[in-house]
Amino acid sequence: MTDQRIQIFADVSELAAAVAQQIVTRAQAAVADHDRFTIALSGGSTPRAVFERLAASLLKEQLPWAKTYVFWGDDRAVPPDHPDSNYRMASESLLQHVPLPKEQIKPILTQCDDLDAAAQHYERVIQSFVPGSPPCFDLILLGMGPDGHTASLFPHSPALAVTNALVTATPVAPLKPHMRRITFTATLINAAAEVVFLVAGADKAGRLAEVLEGPQAPDTLPAQLVRPTNGVLSWMIDQAAAQELKHSYG
Ligand code: 6PG
Q: pTM of the prediction?
């Protein structure tokens, strides 16, 4: 059964500070345990706040960058310098400001014409750098959209049912930016040692209450597919997004 932790913060700034600290804690533990820290980043505005916080804080000095490998849980089918690129967002908000060796940054090859081939290639890259079968990321950061999607696993998408691959290409996303994407599957996400959901903003409140406290309906609420088999599931939420939760947490 998944070990689930729910923490609520006054605002995005407090949430971002706590997530930045959690990244450092997990990274140090991973390096002490197996001499490597593997992390998958997410797109979206809440993760951006976390990356900016980490880049600006003294915490970044405590991250074992020489032993860190950075991947993306999903990205959009655009060139890496496109404004909608999740790689570009993480690069500008964090990676350009830290001493992470370039060869340890592993973007998804989203420029490829054949997205299925790009997904299969990314799966092989993950298998060669992330230990375990299926590969066990030390930390996967996820956002949640107002429709309950996570990574690029959208409601009713065929990607939800993919169990024989770690990474898959998706049809055009129903939300902006409307384009095809490449995403981790639930199989890969659920193999992680820790998955952290970052959820902020009042527009997420109703959906978050359904995901956490409503009946299981993962086809309409893909965030419910996330249940790490042997890992920890952490929800880090701001007060605005938490306002419709019925239970009190923490
Ligand atoms: C993407 C994402 C996506 C995102 C959520 C939440 O590429 O769009 O990875 O899953 O994390 O939509 O985004 P916000 O934090 O901006 O609401």
A: 0.97
Residue 187 in any domain: the answer is no
CATH number at residue 52: 3.40.50.1360
CA distance 215 to 210: 7
74 lines ligand 1 (CB under 6 A): yes
Q: How far is the CA of 47 from the centre of ligand 1 (A)?
A: 8
Q: Buried b / exposed e across 226-244, counting CB within 10 Å, b at 16+?
A: bebeebbbbbbbbbbbbee
- Structural domain count of the chain: 1
pLDDT, mean of residues 45-49: 92
Place 248 in a pLDDT band, splitting at 50, 70 and 90: confident
Question: Does residue 229 form part of some domain?
Answer: no
In this prediction, residue 3 carries a pLDDT of 86
Residue 209 has pLDDT above 70, yes or no: yes
Closest alpha carbon to 100 in 151, 127, 59, 61: 61
The answer to whether the beta carbons of residues 102 and 5 sit under 8 Å apart is no
- Give tens-digit pLDDT for 172-181: 888 898 999 9
What values do phi and psi take at 68, rounded to 5?
-100, 135
> Would 221 be classed as within a structural domain?
no
Distance 201 CA to ligand 1 centre (A): 12
**Which of 72, 150, 235 gets mutated to test ligand 1 (max ligand atoms within 8 A of its CB)?**
150
Q: 191 in a domain, yes or no?
A: no
Would you call 54 helix, strand, or coil by DSSP? helix
What digits encode the pLDDT tens for the residues 181-207? 999 999 999 999 999 999 999 999 999
* Residue 66 DSSP symbol: G
**Proportion of the chain in helix, strand, coil states, percent, rounded to 5:** 40, 20, 40
